[in-house]
Amino acid sequence: MNRPPHHEPRTPHDLVGIGIGPFNLSLAALAHPLTDLDTAFYEQHPRFDWHPGLLIDGTTVQVPFLADLVTLADPTSPWTFLRYLTAHDRLFPFYFTERFHIHRAEYDAYCRWVAEHLPGLHFSHQIDAVRWNAEHEVFEVDFTQLDTDGEAEALGRTHTRNIVLGVGTTPHIPSPLKPLADDPGIPVLHAADYLHHRDTLLAAEHVTVVGSGQTGAEIFLDLLRHRPAGRERLHWLGRTEAFAPMEYSKLGLEHFTPDYTRYFHALAEPDRDQLAAAQWQLHKGIDAGTIAAIHDELYRRTLHGGWPDATLTPGVHVRTAGRIATAKIELHLEHTRQNTRTPLTTDAVVLATGYRPRPLDRILAAIDPYLRRDSAGRPRIDEDHRLDLDPCVTGRIYVQNTDLHTHGVGTPDLGLTAWRSATILNSLTGKETYRLPHRTAFTTFGLQQPSRIPSARHAPSLTPLADGR
After folding, report:
1. Residue 146 vs residues 141, 155, 335, 442: alpha-carbon distances, Å
2. So what's the pLDDT on residue 460?
3. Most buried residue among 135, 256, 288, 380 by CB atoms closer than 10 A?
């Protein structure tokens, strides 16, 4: 297969999205009614899938249903969660459930409904490279079209004036456990694959869950509920000082507002780094309801005497790990405060150790010379979620969910999805395409206030499309 040769591009897109997760799907949905904006979105997977290995029965999204793809920017959009319910004749049943937080599986189904009906989305397309064509002032985007088996079927290239990166995150596996996790014959797996291996885990004699956040709690609870009383044989380990509840007070939640995002972005880089590290409980703690359910389940197993065979230990980390005998796994644990060490023998390990931004080096290798970085080597990103590029690049590259170091704890939060998408579209179009609120929090963050409205006014207008729309 040969890539199309370099030549003068046909009329380029105004915007190409790379990756179709909730964030870029939101952007595509809000861009849909803008008839003077030519967009296309590409995703290597064959369909929309939102954490399929973690759609455990009964688990809910940690933001209210109003934090869907579009409502907080445009509640009249045809792509709201309520319109999804209406399309499936489920609006009245939902009304009578009086549920503010929907099931994860339902959020996944809602997003898939949008993805299946929204035009301009190209699944089974793997983006291979992005280059800047200075002569024509467009980005060249090379892709591979995949067949139903995920194998290369055809090569292609498209052109665009602007790009938005929404390639998501990748499971993080701590280095001491990586050799075991890379061996398909050893039951050491990341939580992202939990449901795919759940039967194996339930059949294992002893299971260890590593990770003290919401995902670790949900997996520990699911395993606990499905193992025999008195023979639970479970360990739950975490680095944090406690299995701590997530900050969920109403004023605490204001850290997930545009007001706080603007405040955070305006801080000096060292202050942002210090704050981000200290605010883990805002987004890495455990929902209080899940903590209560775990305690209730453990307590229920004491009703007839005895204690469940389950050990919950915070404040520890895995120093090294290896395989012993033919089927056992040995974890070498260290307790941070006690400065003590001990081995733990187990039959299976689930790593609820979070995610990291997916590396962009391969896709953006040709853009790297134009990319400006901070003192830690991270991309500099402006308030409108746009990479800071050399001025010779007149096109713009926006990012989704890779700017925690510049935009704070709200970066991965679904509650800011629609607002961020609207911010990007306002910047792209050079006008207030979507009216964004001047104030979103009762809390006043700081004594000096940054601009209330993202700087769309500084963006140039788009070049009119060739067909005159």
Report:
1. 16, 9, 47, 49
2. 43
3. 256
> What 3-state class would DSSP assign to 431?
coil
Q: How far apart are CA 53 and CA 462, in angstroms?
A: 41
Quick check: 154 and 145 in contact, CB under 8 A?
yes
CA pair distance 329, 325, nearest whole angstrom: 9
In angstroms, what CA-CA distances link 236 with 96, 168, 197, 403, 420? 37, 27, 18, 31, 36
* CA–CA gap between residue 340 and residue 356 (Å, rounded): 29
Token pair for residue 70? Answer: 């579009």
CA distance 419 to 209: 35
Distance CA 13, CA 159 (A): 6
Cβ-contact 23, 418 below 8 angstroms: no
Residue 327 pLDDT? 84
**Beta-bridge mates of residue 16:** 40, 163
Count H helices and E strands in the chain, helices first: 13, 18
Count of other CB atoms within 10 angstroms of residue 322 = 14
Mark 42-55 as b/e (b = at least 16 C-beta within 10 Å).
bbbeeebbbbebbb
- pLDDT at position 7 is 56
Task: Flag whether pLDDT at 465 surpasses 90.
Answer: no
Per-residue pLDDT, 283: 87
The pTM score is: 0.93
Describe the crossing of helices 417-429 and 22-31 by its angle, rounded to 10 degrees: 50
Query: Residue 193 is encoded by which pair of tokens?
Result: 């694959």
State the number of CA atoms in the 13 A half-sphere of 298 facing the CB: 18
d(CA 462, CA 469): 12
Cite the beta strand spans of 238-327 per DSSP E: 310-313, 316-324
Which secondary-structure segment (H or E) carries 179? helix 178-181
Q: Do β-strands 138-146 and 152-160 pair in parallel, antiparallel, or remain unpaired?
A: antiparallel
> ∠ CA 65-68-74 to the nearest 5 degrees?
115
Q: Which two tokens stand for residue 106?
A: 């339902």
